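Tutorial sheet, problem 5. The two components below are modelled jointly, 625 residues in total.
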Amino acid sequence: MKNDNLSVFTKGIIKENPVFVLVLGTCPTIATTTNLIGAFGMGISALLVLLCSNILISLLRKIIPDNVRIPCYIVIIAGFVTIVQMIVHAYFPELYEMLGVYLALITVNCIILGRAEMFASKNSVGKSALDGLGMGLGFTLALCAMAFIREVFGAASFAGVPIAFLENYKIEFLVKAPGGMLVYGLLIALVCVITHGKAPRKKQFSCEGCPSAEHCHSGICANTENKKEDK
Amino acid sequence: MKNSIKSTLVLICVCAFITAALAVTNSITAPIIAKNEEAAANDALLQVLPDGKNFEKLDITTYSLPATVTEAYKAESGGYVLKLETSGYAAGLVIMCGVDAEGKVAGTVILSSGETPSIGGVAADTLAGALVGKDAAGIDGVDTISGATKTTGAYRAAVKDALNAAIILGGGDVDIRTEEEILNDNLSASLPAADGKFTKLFITEVITGIDAIYKADNGKGAVCVVGEQFIALDENYNVITEVDAELASTVKEQAEKALTSTAEDIDLGKYTGLPSALLSAKLTASGNYVLEMRASGYGINGNHYIASGEYIKIRVSMTADGKIIDCLTISQAESKGYGDACADEKFYGQFDGKTQENYGTIDAINGATLTTNGYKTAILRAFESVIILKGGAE
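Model answer (structure tokens):
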């Protein structure tokens, strides 16, 4: 059982990394990884929202009727996002300026709704909290890895501190969105190599979590063996 | 049915709970956010008035401040910070200016400008440094940045306004009237019957000893400007301002000549070879010509995507032997901030007294070569027209 919990926590970091394996939350990943501080702030904000929403949704999983579950999840997630936003605005105004609209957009971050649907609505509070922590950490680490590469090689600085010897060798393309896509793709490839391609394929985890799964009876979703992963 | 009631209730409960959580968070964070924002706003004020503390925003509508002042803050230490927005030729320059307790410039910073970054933008930075520690008299001594005459002028004027505003806010009195207002005040003082409304007379007669004549709009006389003096005349051209008899008789005689001048239209169809720039012409009883010309400035010759496509209209009066008596820009649609200076008396006034030989010596409008050249060409056509008109009809 203990091992089981550990794997729930660790799977988000590499094996089911939300960014590099599940390919969720692509928009904030590209937008907020131009510098390390912004990426870290974004990751931690998302982690907090993910943790809180996973716990609350898991607590309420037996109370919330199936037909209003999506509105309930959205209200809960949006509420936590706004709380986090207020806290960041009050205590970290610089970070608030830096993240801008992307902070509010955590509400529609697929990772959070995805984990609510895929995991928290079906698992115990403890496991959901661990899942939220793991996924949040995986998200934060992924953003930081990307931001590290983009900031150091693209802007010749580390967390805002200029790196003198790279000053003349900046690859400014990396700071732009296409450069972000390139780094993203390369990191996905790297994670694939690390996991020896054993990370779950999309079809192995997606159907259960897909919000339209119950209306979708064609293709791979009809295949019951694909529906077991998270149970 | 039971199911839908349950669903609704659950959703309402979830919403209520989240709303409560938000309300609690907001009650904690809102004061901190407000404090942070105030501190950020104060930072900008501190930048221009470093030793200021506890800034208090003043209601500027209760004072009569120069029109450029848009916001005013008072520091506990006695200094002021003023936000200024320039208008006119260099419109859109927004400046924060700190004035210390002694009435000297403590610092300035440009919040936004539409200046050319490489010229005006650089000038602004240099000026900001040069102006620190200056008082109203010292500002004029600050060197103009070469290539950025307008920026320098606007900046200096705005900072002067800031110093004046600080004096007024401190309870002092200072003359903030514009040149135009000062002129009108002087005119009104010498001829109160005009109710403060005057129009400058377009002079069509050769007169001596008077610099300008302003007619009362209500017909109750006129005011003549002679050097620094303002001499009023009543409806019958009698001098009512107290001056010595000799001057009074000269002014009466000359002003009456100018004010009673009459002119008749000339039928241009009777002449051949007149330039197309000539729109209409009149001949005064004394034999002077009054011509309306159109000039092709930037509006006609400029980049046709942004130029207005309109001519500059000019009225010019001239003696029969080709000496300009008076010149006036009637209408123009040249580029704002550049060619529109052709409507400024500082420009067209230069043509007064010029002849075909020396009219080219006038100063061009800075940054508006096409406008200046078009204007000059129209004046040349006016000289040519007079020669043809003088030659008589066919």
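Marking note: The interface with chain B takes residues 60, 63-65, 67-68, 71-72, 75-76, 78-79, 82-83, 86-87, 89-91, 93 of chain A (CB under 8 Å). Full credit if you identified this.
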